[in-house]
Write a structure and sequence with these properties.
Helices cover 40% and strands 16% of the residues. The protein starts with 5 loop residues before the first helix and ends with a helix. The chain has 475 residues and is α/β, with parallel strands linked by helices. Strands 3-2-1-4-5-7-6 form a 7-stranded mixed sheet, sandwiched between helices. The protein folds into 2 domains: 6-266, Rossmann fold (3-Layer(aba) Sandwich), CATH 3.40.50.150; 278-473, Adenine-n6-DNA-methyltransferase Taqi, Chain A, domain 2 (Adenine-n6-DNA-methyltransferase TaqI, Chain A, domain 2, Alpha-Beta Complex), CATH 3.90.220. Strand 2, helix 6 and strand 3 (122-125) form a beta-alpha-beta unit. The protein contains 20 helices and 19 strands. Helix 3 crosses helix 4 (65-77). The protein has helices spanning 6-18, 21-24, 34-45, 65-77, 79-87, 98-115, 159-168, 178-189, 212-219, 259-267, 269-276, 296-299, 346-351, 389-396, 399-408, 413-416, 422-427, 433-436, 439-452, 458-473; strands at 56-58, 91-95, 122-125, 139-142, 196-202, 222-231, 242-249, 278-279, 285-286, 300-301, 308-312, 317-318, 321-322, 327-330, 354-357, 365-367, 373-374, 378-381, 429-430.
């Protein structure tokens, strides 16, 4: 059953904007937007049997975006769950702030009105970090506060409270942070038999040596099933690259080794791909973006002028979509003594089929349409001689290609700085039409559909990842 929850989401957004600055400063992160929240719900909950309603908990529910997204997802994918969640106490949210908890209640009440149901969610105002570990559930979803507590930030929590957290949570002994202890709490609260957790965390916790203690503590509780890079800017106000971590109950690798590189070794992502496929021709990628050098003020303007052409930058690009350019390039600005810049011929920009963000932990690509000049924080892709542009766009934006990139270049200095280079893209293999088989047309179709919705369909994104994996591996 498809239900319009726009009224509930509008109320959530209104309350998020109205949160007092003093309270917002304590959150350490942001409220999860709808599209990302739906992806969390889909990846976490889609493995549960249809006729067995799971108990779902958000231990840091904020204004309830993840709970609302779970209801919206269930209406389409598991309609038999909705009533048990909203009226049977199987949907639970914990929040230390009464103001935010009341906001969650309001959002879920509006969701109930959309469904024409009287809702009775189990919302509790409490400090989740003091929860009894016997309060187990089938699934946990969370976007915990992203707050490091090292250095001066350590003063944000009283010494007695820090000591209490350190005694209880092994993850706090390495890099002390609220997001790690909330994740460890979630790992303790899911059932040992089939429990699942979907949590949004800084992507660096997967492989940074600073988080080895966190990974060791989590290995006593869960095994990482998937780590889905979400890129920068997906959480408003947060600059870190975000990752969606899907964790399942069990015992993992207690060595503290990086999670993702070990997962890639197990699935042989790089080895399988490099043996079966070859890269695109070197001419498929190019560094043609405008570098204004020391002539920014001379070349760039915020307002349209005669002979000024639209110019984009990386902030205009998201996976599968781009917005209209907001700035303009004075293409006829004469050279002045002491000023330098690099501007490629206009024909190069017209030949560009796809643009790829340079400053990211994985490739993020969009069709270059409508065409315009763009800055050097975007890389040009001129297409492949035997590939449909929509196929390439789908591959570039898939999680499989992202993992292939991270595995291939995880040891390089540029990779560590989060900089994608033309040389790296030229080295990555891409399946041919013949090698991809039936997946080729499936990827094209999914890519076109995702372009229509600016990549905002969690179900199709998951289908795309599956299709790209099959194109690479043949299974």
């Amino acid at each position: 059953m498809k239900v319009d929850f726009s009224a509930a989401w509008k109320e959530h957004e209104r309350m998020a904007r109205a949160v007092p600055p003093a309270l917002k400063a304590t959150l350490g992160g942001a409220f999860t937007p709808r599209v990302l929240a739906l992806r969390v719900a889909h990846e976490t909950l889609s493995r549960f049997p249809r006729n067995d309603v799971p108990t779902l908990l958000d231990p840091s529910c904020g204004l309830g975006s993840l709970l609302l997204a779970s209801i919206e997802w269930a209406c389409v994918s598991r309609p038999q769950w909705v009533k048990a969640w909203l009226q049977g106490g199987k949907l639970r949210g914990w929040e230390v702030s009464r103001e935010l908890s009341d906001g969650t209640k309001r959002v879920l009440e509006i969701a109930g009105q959309c469904l024409k149901l009287q809702v009775r969610p189990k919302l509790v105002i409490r400090d989740s970090l003091e929860a009894d570990e016997r309060e187990v559930c089938d699934a946990v979803i969370a976007c915990p506060p992203w707050k490091d507590l090292a250095g001066a930030a350590a003063q944000d929590i009283p010494p007695a409270k820090r000591a209490q957290i350190a005694r209880r949570f092994g993850s706090f002994t390495g890099t002390p942070a609220l997001h790690t202890v909330f994740t460890e709490l979630g790992g303790r609260l899911i059932k040992r038999d089939g429990g699942r957790m979907g949590v949004l965390l800084p992507l660096r916790v997967a492989d940074s040596p600073d988080y080895a203690a966190f990974r060791r503590a989590m290995a006593q509780l869960v095994v990482p099933e998937q780590i889905l890079a979400q890129g920068q800017g997906v959480l408003p106000g947060v600059r870190d690259d975000a990752g969606l971590f899907i964790l399942t109950a069990g015992r993992g690798d207690v060595s503290g080794e990086p999670w993702e590189s070990r997962a890639d070794e197990q699935e042989q992502v790089y080895q399988t791909s490099i043996l079966r496929h070859i890269p695109l021709p070197p001419t498929s990628f190019g560094d043609i973006g405008v570098n204004t050098g020391n002539s920014e003020a001379l070349l760039i303007t915020d307002k349209p002028e005669q002979h000024a052409q639209p110019i984009r930058d990386a902030s205009d690009v998201i996976a599968f979509a781009m917005r209209k350019p907001r700035r303009f390039l004075r293409t006829r600005a004469g050279g002045q003594t002491g000023h330098y810049a690099r501007i490629a011929p206009a024909a190069s920009f017209k030949q560009t089929r796809i643009v790829i963000k340079r400053d990211a932990q994985r490739p993020i690509a969009a069709k270059h349409n409508p065409q315009a000049y763009f800055r050097d924080d975007l890389i040009a892709c001129f297409g492949g001689p035997d590939h449909d542009d929509d196929f390439l766009l789908g591959v570039f934006n898939s999680e499989y290609f992202g993992r292939l990139y991270r595995d291939s270049f995880k040891e390089t200095r540029l990779r560590a700085e989060g900089r994608i280079t033309v040389e790296q893209l030229r080295a990555l293999p891409v399946p041919s039409r013949r090698a991809a088989g039936a997946s080729y047309n499936q990827i094209i179709q999914l890519s076109r559909e995702l372009q229509k919705c600016a990549g905002k369909n969690p179900r199709m994104l998951a289908q795309l990842d599956t299709a790209v994996r099959k194109a690479y591996t043949g299974k």
